[in-house]
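Think of the structure tokens as a kind of shorthand, similar to the way a musician reads notation: each symbol stands for something richer, in this case the local conformation of the backbone. In the example below we present two proteins back to back. Begin with the first one, reading the sequence and then the tokens, and try to describe in your own words what changes along the chain.
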Amino acid sequence: MPPAIRSRLALPDLAATLVRRAVRVAAVLLVALAAAAPGARADTIPVKFAELRADEDTYVLNAEFEVAINPTLEEALQKGVPLYFVFDFELLRPRWYWVDEKVLLVSTQYRVSYNALTRQYRVASGLLGQTFDALDGVERFLSRVTSRPVANRDQLVPGTRYEAGVRLRLDVNQLPKPFQVSALASREWSLQSEWHRWSFTP
């Protein structure tokens, strides 16, 4: 076969090989960039402990986190941007034959804001609110859940094993739209704990 014909036939194969190599290189680069990106993982809120205990006709929850509001979030507060934290508690009943049954799901939202005139922080949940002179008071308030009723005695079956879980997170969906975009790219806006789980048998 003449050399010119051989060259023309080899060009498509060469192009396909180059495309495959370029795709592989691009995939490796994307994985590396995702791992190195600032928003690749969230700032964590450590969970110190959590427990359920019986108290008269109810079961109450105690939990302690270690909340640390970073400088980026503090600056946003002082510029008038409220922050919304959500505390979640759930109780599951494990089932070997099917997915776990969700017995309880309780969520509490806290709105944290800053008043530039009084130079005070305010934490509000529903109709209740409390003010603090410094940010560390806000952090201590968000870090503790004390004797919170989560279930009536008759809601749980004695002798049955349940799996309880708690977490605390900054709800970025409540932020103004420009800040939501920033939250996608920066770990400093992704403040949350992992689910902390333990077994509980009434």
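Once you have a description of the first chain, move to the second and do the same.
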Amino acid sequence: MIRFEALTKTFGAFAALGPLDLRITTERVVAIIGPSGCGKTTLLRVLAGLDAPSAGRVVIDEEPIEGPRPDIGVVFQEPRLMPWLSVRENVALGVWDAPKAKRTAAVDAAIERVGLSRFAGVLPRQLSGGMAQRVGIARALVGEPRLLLLDEPFGALDPLTRLGMQDHLLEIVGTAVPTTIIITHDIDEALVLGDRVIVLHGPPARIARSIDVDLPRPRLRTSPAFGTLKAELLDDLVTHVAAAV
């Protein structure tokens, strides 16, 4: 269980978040969408323990998040790979403090999980954009986190690669991670990936809507039910942006 309890974040006089109250329980994938600048990335950074809340707190299974934790994996929009390290060495950064034998086994398993075993020894410059992002996902998964956070992880990819990565992510998190929270601007992506979609308005970021996506997988973007949910979310976002102008 993840709870946001009266969560707020300010930077000087600027209010970026909240107050937010939210509970995530049985959903495997939660997608958070909202217009640019509404506070999505700030929320993710607080969840990851990278920024401390100004008030309130985030709790995972009754344990407050009070800083970066090994049981929370983070994937950013850019892979952020060390260019002088191989794929295997980049993934190993996620378990740098583990005993060597355990580290080797965990790294090999994570690389296999994202389908890059044949490329374990190559450098990042030899990878495509999608492959590089898969390395970033493997690095986040190698420590077997109970929470995986993704901040626009496929935003820099071409449309076809992005579709493939969405399917690949669902295969991974379906067996490896109890809870995944993904930040995205893409309504289709949110509906394809999420068991629940949360719409933020802001700043400061506040929850405008929460929708349970009760559609069978794999989800067809051309289905009437998918189109209905997409229209609802799009209308909500467009209405907010128009009101803010």
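Compare your description with these statements about the second chain. The radius of gyration is 18 Å.
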